[in-house]
């Protein structure tokens, strides 16, 4: 069980450490009516945004905490979400992916690593309908 009365539920507070995340909405999606009906979701609970998030600080679970703290938890996030609907029917895992990382190698040279969206998350997006 998750939620404010669960031991696994965590939220951002003003007494926590400073953290900053830059976010940009890439696409807005809607659940198909078939999935929304099976999952008993109505109205805004059927709307999802694909974001590009860039943590400007490096706190544990920073993106997850920031999105949940503004009422927009990541799909499939059982630790930080108050959302009780089971998304496993249309999203098999936490919808969080590191697309790009820039680091310095042992010689101090910049290295950029790119990773495409995994198949299971690509399939999840394919099950959604882009909003006009």
Present the secondary structure layout.
Elements lengths: L20 E11 L1 H6 L8 E9 L6 H8 L30 E5 L5 E5 L4 H8 L1 E3 L2
Antiparallel strand pairs: 1-2, 1-5, 3-4
Task: Offer a quick outline of the entry.
Helix content is 17%, strand content 25%. It has helices at 33-38, 62-69, 119-126; strands spanning 21-31, 47-55, 100-104, 110-114, 128-130.
Task: For this entry, give a set of tags.
132 residues; alpha+beta; three-stranded antiparallel beta sheet; two-stranded antiparallel ribbon; 17% helix
Overview of the structural elements:
It is a single chain. The chain has 132 residues and is an alpha+beta fold. It has a 3-stranded antiparallel beta sheet with strand order 2-1-5. The radius of gyration is 16 Å and the shape is globular. A hairpin with a 5-residue loop joins β3 and β4. The longest helix is centred in the middle third of the chain and has 8 residues. The chain has 3 helices and 5 strands, in the order βαβαββαβ.
Query: How would you classify the quaternary structure?
Result: single chain
Strand content: 25-35%
List the uncertain runs: 1-10
Please, how many helices? 3
For the biggest β-sheet, the strand order reads: 2-1-5
Percentage of residues in helical conformation: 10-25%
Mean pLDDT: 85
Characterize the biggest β-sheet: 3 strands, antiparallel
Distance between the termini: 35 Å
Total strands: 5
The arrangement of helices and strands along the chain is EHEHEEHE
